[in-house]
Amino acid sequence: MSFLSKCGTVLAGLLLVSKMQSEAAATMRPRAEVLGRERVSVNDDWRFQRFTENPDGLSYDILKPWILPAANPYLSGTKHEKPSEPGPGSNITFVQSGFDDKAWDAVDLPHDWAATGEFDFSEDVSGGTGRLPFTGIGWYRKSLTISEETIQAGKSIYLDVDGAMAYATAWLNGELVGGWPYPYNSFRLDLTPYAKTGDNVLAIRVDNAPESARWYPGAGIYRNTWLVTANPVHVGYHGTYITTPTISAEQASIQLKVEVENTGNASQTVQVETEIFELDSASRKATGQAVAKISASTLSVSGNSKQSVNGSTTVANPKLWGPAPKQTPNEYIAVTTISSNGTALDTYETPFGIRTVTYDPNQGILINGQHVPVYGTCNHHDLGSLGAAFNYRAAERQIEMLQEMGNNALRTSHNPPAPEWLELADKMGLMVMDEIFDTWNYAKVDNDFHLLFPEWSEADLRSFIRRDRNHPSIISWSIGNELAEQSNATGTATAKRLQDIVHEEDPTKHVTVGMNNAGPTTGLAAEIDIIGLNYQGEGKGNAASGSFAAFHSKFPDKMIWSTESASTISSRGVYIFPVTSNKSAIVGGGPGEGGDPINNHVSAYELYAPEWAASPDKVFEQQDRHPYVAGEFVWTGWDYIGEPTPYDNSSRSSYFGIIDLAGFKKDRFYLYQARWRPDLPMAHILPHWTWPDREGKVTPVHVFTSGDEAELFINGKSAGRQKRGQYDYRLRWDNVTYTPGEISVKTWKNGAEWASASHRTVGAAAALNVTVDRAKIDGDGKDLAFVSVAVVDEKGDTVPAADNEITFEVVSGPGEIVTTDNGDPRDGTPFPSKTRKAFSGLALAIVRAEKGASGEIVVEAKAEGLVAGKVTVTAA
Ligand SMILES: *[C@@H]1O[C@H](CO)[C@@H](O)[C@H](O)[C@H]1NC(C)=O
Ligand SMILES: *[C@@H]1O[C@H](CO)[C@@H](O)[C@H](O)[C@H]1NC(C)=O
Ligand SMILES: *[C@@H]1O[C@H](CO)[C@@H](O)[C@H](O)[C@H]1NC(C)=O
Ligand SMILES: *[C@@H]1O[C@H](CO)[C@@H](O)[C@H](O)[C@H]1NC(C)=O
Ligand SMILES: *[C@@H]1O[C@H](CO)[C@@H](O)[C@H](O)[C@H]1NC(C)=O
Ligand SMILES: *[C@@H]1O[C@H](CO)[C@@H](O)[C@H](O)[C@H]1NC(C)=O
Ligand SMILES: *[C@@H]1O[C@H](CO)[C@@H](O)[C@H](O)[C@H]1NC(C)=O
Ligand SMILES: *[C@@H]1O[C@H](CO)[C@@H](O)[C@H](O)[C@H]1NC(C)=O
Ligand SMILES: *[C@@H]1O[C@H](CO)[C@@H](O)[C@H](O)[C@H]1NC(C)=O
Fold it and tell me: Is 483 exposed, middle or buried (0-12, 13-18, 19+ CB in 10 A)?
């Protein structure tokens, strides 16, 4: 009999029962109850202040002796001694309970102080980091109430931070607890020794130096934070590891390692058992009856120590996890219980999946034996106008749109993502290359991770793998990107050290690294499991071909993929003439080079890239000519803040995205969709057909289609029918002369009619057409509605050049406009502004319901001389 059948008595006997647990108990899901531990969000009701001058005399160098011990659980060698004297604090007013923080800003986490700021367009400021005020010292304060029972029972009290930018250091009740410098990793701090009954003051300091990143890093506690309370004997932080060594249609073997931590002084004898359930994807909870059980092991754990126990079982007729759309992302959840003398001390849940990954040097990735070409994108961690502050719905929307394009894989360039990003990938069925570092020993910018690398790389890497290794979506670990030392002996030795660590922590997945220069004769290439090529595979710039063949012949037993490809750049809806006849062209300011250095735009014909890069078409050709290559991770799926190549001196966000910063699709979206979703009937035509100053001028027309043949019509008259050649990925009518009216395209596939598309020459702007991504949102103060506005003519067609100034307003109901955007990389209007110009006819407002609100929220968009538009969003 499982202890769980005694649920009622156990519940009554528990000293600490959370509200959430009571609610769960009320719904009586009899199995898989979480007992003995409480994990509550501590995101709300913080006070915050940013300082541009150091307000406290502290620095990482001063704090380091008290922070370094946080690395100890992850170090294989010598541990850091915790100093016997208390850390700085008694002289820091911000950490004192008595400090009056009422004048500070009231904020909820996740929080990015910089994203709401002004853009700095001064001449000496580069757009590389996005022009937002991310530098400085930030202090956060919050009151935590801890019950007498918790203290009396000697519970362990932890602060779990999913990510804080950067060099986070925490104090409780004036005493220095510890910290974690790398801003993209999650970490746990033990508050127990400093906690007391009643009110406790938690203070967190973050420190963001200039030149700390190559892109926009964000600033502040930008991910979720949790307070975890557990009995002294509990499953350790990220303390489970599940593997599925053998899988057949009839059964899958499951191996589980559980690390049990005992923070009490006395040794404890406990039983550890685990039940396995199917996971309900939406609620992330166990569903139905247990499908397998790892029977109890008895374990004696000495005081103040950790001990691991292994167990195994089998799941009959396993429902496999596999990438959408051809496979289904089924998941399971392991519910581990630690009990003593029949009383549950802790319950710990580990979602996981059952699937095989094969790394085939001649075919690429096979999931569950089925070849899956990698149609991937790289993405930075920011969420457009919301900045780096993590938001579940914003992340989900990003992945939904990528999936609509046929994107089946994500690279977390160049750092650990929010944990929820991986949960979304698990649930939605995308493969993930989980990446940890952008620098190793040598700097890319002065204050980047190279400063921390010698002391922290092992701890960061092991903690990252332990956090993420149970996610079925992760098919590969990336230990780095475009390292300065990639081609020399230092790089080889570092790669070996890091890869060995990964193999120790998770031998089931292959390791890769993004190499933009290291060639087939380098030590790094010989060392690494998977050859990861940034741009060099397909051939950079005007190079006719690249290095796929050389790597494949040198390493016939290694899989190869493009860890980074394309880097095509464009401004949505902006077309620049003349158009190159090349398949791929290096962007410049001259005729046919696609750039407009006066207005800082790059042509959306989707043919232009920086000198190291290539158009999608060229990448596709090289992938097709080298079919052993597993696929590509395009730079980038979404535009991001910072790196506005080639206009770093004048813009603030990137031109690389297939989808712009606001979430509007560039033409390129359809070029990828045509290749990645060959069974979806679609055709897309560019440019738009409203060119008052181009009458009689050559205006090339390009068509992206999943069909294989197309005929173009101009005002009903055929401009010619074309078949796609073997290495053609678009159909081009480069000699079309512009005349107003209608262009349309009809496409065929295998001789049958397939899809069509058209554009009409539009009239003057007349109205605003307002739409929303979802008519209903949660009234939890976090869920978001994305409200899009198109400037339309009298017939309702988008006016492609419209840049009317639009004002957004919540005219009724319990909602607020959080930010606005339009996808223009040059736009200097702060993100929270309620007024924003349309860019190429479109603008966006992000709307949130007030916390705890319900009812209809009416959002209106107005612009001078145009009929206003409205949309209703219901919060529930
Ligand atoms: C507090 O003490 C630390 C050394 O313990 C010192 O570095 C720092 O400058 C002091 N801060 C203030 C505000 O006096
Ligand atoms: C555990 O031992 C330490 C050091 O001997 C002591 O300070 C602490 O109070 C003990 N904890 C408990 C819960 O007894
Ligand atoms: C326990 O499991 C881990 C991870 O699967 C493995 O590395 C280790 O060797 C196992 N230990 C024992 C004693 O079987
Ligand atoms: C379990 O029972 C044993 C023997 O009766 C006792 O020594 C031990 O303290 C009990 N453990 C707990 C956690 O109550
Ligand atoms: C390796 O490359 C780095 C970065 O260019 C350089 O600083 C370092 O000196 C090189 N090391 C060796 C051993 O050549
Ligand atoms: C087009 O390709 C040719 C041949 O590779 C090259 O010389 C020319 O510079 C290319 N044009 C652009 C704009 O890249
Ligand atoms: C940008 O500005 C820097 C420094 O002022 C200058 O060196 C560089 O040439 C400029 N780049 C462009 C593309 O104008
Ligand atoms: C376009 O016109 C030019 C000049 O008339 C000609 O050289 C070229 O072959 C034409 N291209 C196509 C694709 O018809
Ligand atoms: C205008 O709004 C309607 C929904 O109200 C939508 O179906 C249509 O696509 C929109 N048109 C444009 C051009 O955005």
Answer: buried
Angle at 200 between CA 221 and CA 43, to 5 degrees: 30
pLDDT tens digits, residue range 353-377? 999 999 999 999 999 999 999 999 9
Half-sphere exposure of 695 (CA within 13 A, CB side): 5
Tens of pLDDT, residue by residue over 817-862, are 999 999 999 999 999 999 999 999 999 999 999 999 999 999 999 9
Instruction: Report CA(310)–ligand 3 centroid distance (Å).
Output: 6
CA atoms within 13 A on the CB side of 831: 27
Computed from CA positions of residues 800, 805, 811, 814, in that sequence, does the dihedral angle turn out positive or negative? positive
Atom of ligand 3 nearest to the CA of 243: 5
Q: What is the pairing mode between strands 474-481 and 431-435?
A: parallel
Question: How many Cβ atoms from other residues are within 10 Å of residue 246's Cβ?
Answer: 11
pLDDT tens digits, 804-821 = 999 999 999 999 999 999
Q: Strands 409-411 and 374-378, how do they pair?
A: parallel
Measured distance CA(395)–CA(377) in Å, rounded: 14
Q: Are 850 and 804 within 8 A, CB to CB?
A: no
Please report which helix (H) or strand (E) contains residue 463, including its range: helix 453-468
Q: Indicate the top mutation candidate among 257, 297, 503 to test ligand 3's pocket, ranked by most ligand atoms within 8 A of CB.
A: 257
Residues 323 and 367 sit within 8 Å (Cβ to Cβ): yes
Of ligand 8's atoms, which has the minimum distance to the CA of residue 735? Answer: 1
Catalytic residue (choose from 482, 527, 711, 860):
482
Distance from the first to the final alpha carbon of the chain: 41
List, for residues 576-601, the tens digit of each pLDDT value: 999 999 999 999 999 999 999 999 99
∠ CA(232), CA(237), CA(241), 5° rounding? 120
Structure-token match 């690389």, residue found? 656
Interatomic CA distance for residues 379 and 633, integer angstroms: 9
Q: Which two tokens stand for residue 865?
A: 């001389």
- Helix (H) or strand (E) holding 844, with range, is strand 842-849
Mean pLDDT of 247-259: 98
Known catalytic residue at 81: no
Query: Interhelix angle for 453-468 vs 489-505, to 10°?
Result: 30
To the query of whether residue 482 is one of the catalytic residues in this protein, the response is yes
Predicted confidence at residue 35, as pLDDT, reads 78
Ligand nearest to the CA of 735: 8
Strand (E) or helix (H) holding 277? strand 268-280
- 631: β partners: 374
Closest listed residue to residue 262, CA positions, set 180, 148, 345: 345
| Calpha distance 502→496 (Å, rounded) | 10
- For 74-182, where are the E strands, in sequence order? 105-107, 136-146, 156-161, 168-172, 175-180
Whether the bond between 507 and the residue before it is cis, its omega within 30 degrees of 0, is: no
Is 208 in contact with 380 (CB distance < 8 Å)?
no
pLDDT of the residue at 32: 46
